[in-house]
C-alpha cells in the first residue's frame, strides 16, 4: 500500500512572543502541526524580547528563531552593533536568521538615519555569519534596493523579503539580486489584486510563505488574530493562483526555505 505523502509547510515569519499566541503557545503550535505546518520561525523585533524567543526555541522542537531589531525600534537601539547581533545569534544553534530589520518610511516611528544605520549593522552581521537577512520594507523601495545592491557587491548576502507588498518592478529588482520573497495573508485580500498578479509572475522557486501572526489574517478569517495554522489559506490561494496543486506548492515553498536557511533538525 502507499502512504499518502503528508503536506509540509513552514511558517517562515511569525511572532510567538506576542499575545494572544504567547498565552497559549502549546495549543498554537499543536494546531499548526495538525494543519501540516512542520516548522515555525519566530521573529525578533527588539532586544528586550529576545530572551523570550530563546525560551520558546528551547521548549518547542518545531520552533526556530531569529535575532534582530525592527525598523520601528531603531530609535531605541542606536548602539546596536554587528558584534552585538552576532553575539546574540550565537546563543543558540536554533537562531537561524538575522532580522527582522530594514526600512519603514510609511510610519517613520524612527528617524530614517537611525533605521539605515541599524539596517547596515544587520547586513554586516548577516554577511559575517552567512545567515539569511530578513528584511522589512515599506514605502522605502528605492533605498532598500540601493542599500542591498551596494552591500552585495562587497560581500555575499542571503536575503528574504518578508511580507512582500511592493510593486512588480521592485519584486523583479529583488529577484535580480538573488532575494527570496515571502507572501503573507495580504496577498489573499480582495484589494490586493496587483500584489496577486505580481506573485503570479514571481517564480515558484523563489517564494516562501508566512503568517506574520498575530497580524494579517488571510481571507476568509481576516480581522481575527492570526496564527501559524492559518497559513493554509495563503498556501491555497497561491497554489490556485499559480495553478499548482496545494501539495506541490507546499513542497516547493518548504524546499525554498531549506535552500535559504539550510536543513532543520
Explain this structure:
There is one protein chain. This protein has an 8-stranded parallel sheet. The model has no long low-confidence stretch (mean pLDDT 96). By secondary structure, the protein is of the alpha/beta class.
Topology at a glance:
Elements: E1 9-14, H1 25-34, E2 37-42, H2 50-59, E3 63-67, H3 82-89, E4 95-104, H4 112-129, E5 133-138, H5 141-154, E6 159-161, H6 168-176, E7 180-183, H7 193-201, E8 207-209, H8 231-241, H9 246-261
Parallel strand pairs: 1-2, 2-3, 3-4, 4-5, 5-6, 6-7, 7-8
What's the gist of this structure?
The protein is α/β, with parallel strands linked by helices and 265 residues long. It contains nine helices and eight strands.
List keywords for this structure.
265 residues, alpha/beta, 8-stranded parallel beta sheet, 9 helices, 16% strand, globular
Shape: globular
For the sheet with most strands, the description reads: 8 strands, parallel
**Cα end-to-end separation:** 28 Å
Radius of gyration: 17 Å
- Element order: H for helix, E for strand: EHEHEHEHEHEHEHEHH
Per DSSP E runs of 2 or more residues, the count of β-strands stands at: 8
Report the portion of residues in β strands.
Answer: 15-25%
Strand-pairing-aware structural class: alpha/beta
Low-confidence stretches: none
> What's the average pLDDT?
96
Query: Please, how many helices?
Result: 9
Strand order of the largest sheet: 1-2-3-4-5-6-7-8
How helix-rich are the residues, as a percent range? 25-40%
Amino acid at each position: 500500500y502507499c502512504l499518502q505523502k503528508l503536506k509540509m509547510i513552514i511558517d517562515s515569519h511569525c511572532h510567538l512572543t506576542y499575545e494572544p499566541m504567547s498565552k497559549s503557545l502549546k495549543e498554537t503550535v499543536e494546531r499548526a502541526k495538525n494543519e501540516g505546518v512542520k516548522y515555525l520561525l519566530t521573529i525578533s523585533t527588539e532586544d528586550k524580547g529576545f530572551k523570550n524567543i530563546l525560551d520558546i526555541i528551547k521548549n518547542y522542537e518545531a520552533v526556530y528563531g531569529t535575532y534582530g531589531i525592527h525598523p520601528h525600534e531603531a530609535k531605541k537601539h542606536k548602539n546596536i552593533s554587528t558584534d552585538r547581533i552576532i553575539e546574540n545569534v550565537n546563543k543558540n544553534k536554533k537562531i537561524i536568521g538575522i532580522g527582522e530589520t530594514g526600512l519603514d518610511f510609511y510610519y517613520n516611528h524612527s528617524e530614517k538615519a537611525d533605521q539605515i544605520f541599524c539596517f547596515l549593522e544587520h547586513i554586516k552581521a548577516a554577511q559575517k555569519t552567512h545567515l539569511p537577512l530578513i528584511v522589512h520594507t515599506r514605502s522605502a523601495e528605492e533605498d532598500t534596493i540601493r542599500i542591498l545592491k551596494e552591500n552585495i557587491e562587497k560581500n555575499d548576502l542571503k536575503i528574504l523579503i518578508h511580507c512582500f507588498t511592493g510593486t512588480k518592478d521592485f519584486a523583479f529588482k529583488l529577484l535580480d539580486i538573488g532575494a527570496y520573497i515571502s507572501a503573507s495573508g495580504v496577498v489573499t485580500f480582495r484589494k490586493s489584486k496587483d500584489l496577486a498578479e505580481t506573485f503570479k509572475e514571481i517564480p515558484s522557486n523563489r517564494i516562501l510563505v508566512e503568517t506574520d501572526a498575530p497580524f494579517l489574517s488571510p481571507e476568509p478569517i481576516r480581522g481575527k488574530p492570526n496564527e501559524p495554522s492559518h497559513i493554509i489559506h495563503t498556501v491555497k490561494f497561491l497554489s490556485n493562483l499559480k495553478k499548482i496543486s496545494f501539495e506541490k506548492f507546499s513542497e516547493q515553498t518548504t524546499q525554498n526555505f531549506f535552500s535559504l536557511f539550510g536543513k532543520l533538525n
